[in-house]
Design goal:
six-stranded mixed beta sheet, Cytochrome Bc1 Complex, Chain A, domain 1, single chain, alpha+beta
Length: about 475
């Protein structure tokens, strides 16, 4: 919303005049309310702007899907937006648009994410629509068929054109194998085609109960009134019928192995190099943020400087650190022209080796601190962002100090701590998983020098190699 962002801009300008004030960025106070059916509410009144935003997390997501119905969570999330209560898809969208509101649902690895914002005067409409979405979704069969067809077509289009959006999906599938973190969040061509409306209805009843719901609300409201509205509206939401799957940590891969995905018409090679990293509860998360900023988290990072700025081998190179409730992946991601595949990968590996051998120097560390602390307030600009921060903190059980003390922790990080984190998180060059998408005939020889190669076609309807399927 424009008014809210204007207020934030004024606040940020004030911070530039008082550089130490940035360390005081904290989550505002909020109230925790547990309903009789197990739903948990977090109420954070903020009266500066006449807007109310919410972020809801329903535990489950991709990790709770049946193995043969990968994508059921993604299709369910999409269907939640397409009709609920007495309103069909068109009427539901119009009910939101008529008051200038926003309401969306999206799948996540460990939860379905539902977010929205409305003007404060439309709070009753907001609560009504949210309750309908959560408790009375229509799961229209015709809408499901349209969504399935579109999802499958989007995957095929990505395979046919620019595969950058798929490389991490293939990477996690090859790295994690049978572990739930290896499942594609959006499903794959084979599994999406199998999902029926009956699957959607059954999965939602089993997994999306009130006892799995965390709902964070921030903005211009009276807490007593909002508590009353939400308590009444959500009272009819039943508990989940099924058991939430227990997640265990995946073991890091030892040794090197390569997945080569053949895209015969490719003129570029997309590559993903990684291993298992750390979880959301990793204690040195501030030091990790600084290390990853320098290594591959900004335009002037080590990876982007070497692969783009100095050599022109790519238009972009980055490092990603995924930290869900169990250790996720840490990876290098980039692409290059086919004939430079080996050169680009070797340079990425040399940069990783330099990070592990040399760590950061004082100048790099101070630059990263300035960058991270400058970006930090931007994640808490709006009511929607505040609501999302609270929901995330509560979902992972890390405590509000995870946010409140972040700036202080960043400022206290020294070179020794960064050295410890690099050794702890970033994989050794001899223990790496490689995923390459490209013209196999042209890059097969180059791929083989990195480890034993498994091949598959990009036309395969699943993201896992046939050898991994059971």
């Amino acid at each position: 919303m424009r008014l809210e962002r204007l207020c934030v801009l004024i606040w940020l300008l004030a911070l530039t005049a008082a550089p130490h004030a940035i360390a005081q960025v904290r989550l505002p106070p909020y109230e925790r309310v547990v309903l009789d059916n197990g739903a948990v509410l977090f109420l954070m009144p903020q009266h500066e702007v006449p807007i109310i935003a919410f972020a809801a997390l329903v535990r489950g997501g991709t990790v709770a899907e049946p193995v043969q119905r990968r994508g059921v969570a993604a299709l369910t999330a999409a269907l939640l937006e397409r009709g609920a209560g007495t309103r069909d898809a068109k009427a539901f969208v119009e009910a939101i648009a008529d008051v200038g509101g926003e309401l969306s649902a999206a799948p996540g690895l460990e939860a379905i994410n539902i977010r929205g914002d409305f003007l404060a005067r439309d709070r009753k409409r907001m609560v009504e629509l949210l309750a309908d979405l959560l408790i009375r979704p229509r799961f229209d069969a015709r809408e499901l068929e349209k969504l399935k067809a579109r999802a499958i077509e989007l995957i095929r289009a990505a395979k046919d054109s620019d595969a950058r959006g798929l490389i991490s999906t293939y990477g996690n599938a090859f790295l994690f194998g049978d572990h739930p973190y290896g499942r594609p969040i959006g499903g794959d061509e084979a599994s999406l085609a199998r999902v029926t409306r009956e699957d959607i209805v059954a999965w939602y009843a089993e997994q999306a109960g009130a006892d799995r719901l965390l709902l964070s609300v921030a903005g211009d409201f009276d807490p007593a009134e909002m508590k009353k509205l939400l308590t009444a509206a959500l009272a009819g939401m039943p508990k989940a019928h099924g058991v939430l799957p227990a997640l265990t940590a995946a073991a890091p891969v030892t040794g090197d192995r390569v997945l080569l995905i053949d895209k015969p018409d490719a003129t570029q090679t997309y590559f993903w190099i990684g291993n298992v990293g750390v979880s959301k509860r990793y204690e040195a998360h501030a030091a990790l943020e600084l290390a990853n900023t320098v290594f591959g988290g900004r335009f002037t990072s080590m990876l982007n400087t070497e692969l783009r700025i100095r050599t022109g081998l790519t238009y972009g190179a980055r490092s990603s650190v995924s930290r869900p409730s169990q250790p996720g992946s840490v990876a290098i991601v980039s692409y290059t022209r086919t004939d430079a595949t080996g050169q680009a990968i070797d340079l990425a590996l040399a940069t990783l080796s330099r990070l592990r051998s040399d760590g950061l120097d004082a100048e790099q560390l101070e630059s990263a601190k300035r960058y991270v602390l400058g970006q930090y307030p931007l994640d808490m600009e709006t009511s929607e962002q505040l609501a999302a921060q609270v929901a995330t903190v509560e979902f992972y059980g890390v405590g509000r100090a995870y946010v409140d003390d972040f700036a202080k922790e960043v400022q206290s990080v020294d070179l020794a701590k960064v050295r410890e984190v690099i050794d702890d998180v970033y994989p050794k060059p001899e223990d790496l998983v490689y995923v390459l998408i490209g013209n196999a005939a042209a890059i097969r020889e180059q791929a083989a020098k990195y480890g034993p190669v498994t091949e598959m076609s990009i036309a395969a309807p699943e993201f896992r190699a046939p050898a991994q399927l059971h």
